[in-house]
Amino acid sequence: MSLKEQNRKLSTRLAIVALGMFGFGFALVPFYDQICAALGVNSLVERSELPKNTQVDASRTITIELDANTRDLPWRFQPTVRHITVHPGEVATIEYEVINVRGSAVTGQAVPSYGPASAGEYFHKVECFCFQQQTLAAGETRRMPVTFVVDPKLPKDVNTIALSYTFFEVAGRGGKS
Known about the structure:
The structure is a single chain. 21% of the residues lie in helices and 38% in strands. It is of the alpha+beta class. The mean pLDDT is 86.
């Protein structure tokens, strides 16, 4: 076999390997998405859908206590009510109010937390301001809704869920003064 044929054969093999690696890279995206969905990772961008065939459990009531905090952010942030009562399986909407007290635009990202921590897997947000970054102009006031449902599979000994949001400033978006 001549050197030219050997080079052509090697080039063909290398091209096949490169195409295979390229295809593998494309296959990783949906694979990664499936792993994240299975493990519940990336919940800041993942929107929970209503559970299928949800039945409202009118025999139980759950108190949802609402809290709001900011971390190094010039915003006044608070829920419009401090608590609500819902039945498991019932779709409910609450609102938070935020005011930018800085003289310039600021972008923030809200991060939710739950008490007890195990309640987070039973608290399904359908719509939430925490799914994306929020940019408020100087002095802007905004009401932001959260639509959710508490899964009827919530353990019977849990009667109260604390829902707390903390807003953090997004560096480089709106700048610090």
